[in-house]
Specification:
Layout: H1 5-12, H2 16-44, H3 46-66, H4 70-102, H5 107-130, H6 135-151, H7 175-208, H8 219-242, H9 244-263, H10 268-282, H11 285-294, H12 301-328, H13 332-343, H14 359-364
Amino acid sequence: MYTTVPAVTERLGLAPLLTTALMVAVALTAGGGSFLGLAAIRRAGPVATTRGAMLAAAAALVLIGWAPGQAAVICAYALFGLAVGALDVGVNTRAAEIERAYGRSVFGSFYTAWSVGGVLAALLTAGAARLEWPVAGDLTLQAGIVLLLVSCMHTHALPAPVPPSDAVAQPSLGRRLWVRLIPFGLVLLVVYVVESTVSAWSAVYLRQTLTASLAVAPLAYAAYQAGTVIGRAAADRLVQKLGAVAVVRTAALLAAGALAALAAAPSWPFAVLAAGAVGLGASVLAPLCLASAARLSPTASEAVLARLNLFNYVGVVTGGALSGLLGSTGHFRLAYALPATLVVLVPAAARHFTRPSNSARMESLPQTL
């Protein structure tokens, strides 16, 4: 969806500030969608919730593409935000269940699949622009792919997880737990400032600041998502080999340097490479953050993750609004330089990250999900 923002803006003649407001609205409605997803999970489970959210997202994509005017596209983007929020909490809860059952890091694998989808969407948008397809056709095709994925979803039984060895592993859902969530929440906030700045505005940055064509503009997002695929595909193995703390610190420093390079990019090819490096570093932070937070209260992981998602949407709102406002005044480079200074602070929270400790369980279970 984000890669088509320039085309939707040009088709409907949206003002820059209205486009910024729409991206902020998507993040705000996603926050509400997260709690709708939590309620749905408690009634129907994470898999059914994920399926329903994907159907809503497909409908929103079609509505965005075919919206006849500003009012219609605003409603369509709001629906998309609700769907994304519910999808986030559904997928994360299922990942927490699998990680708890198998006793090894799996969040990176889940997020790798998410990133592959982002790469495909960006390449589809670039290809559609090259072929001079209307944005409605591009988004309809993306909606069709989402529906195909929904039809392939199945529920698989999981092995029973081994109970925690001590009571400390499962604190109650009280004030103490939420205090312990603060470091993870702050990291998520920073990560999603970066995510929203690159995802929502990289195509506009290439188009407006670096004078790239509509066919080239989505490539920065594609490179960013390609970097996230590589980073997340390696994350689980790196955590098992090096530990979560070392992985988080290294990834944060890489992301900060790449953001600075993106801000200083002299041309769009350099910006595309820098965006890929941002994805490589930033990609592992969110899944490791969510995995560590879910282990604070394994039996209520869906509630923990739904509340932790609020930090991610605050980050999306902050990053999307700030970069949009700076971009609308011709200062997109500053919009990428500021998040770089925030990411430098992430290593300070790295000591709070953990990895699954149930090594015996891990060795006795299959190595596929």
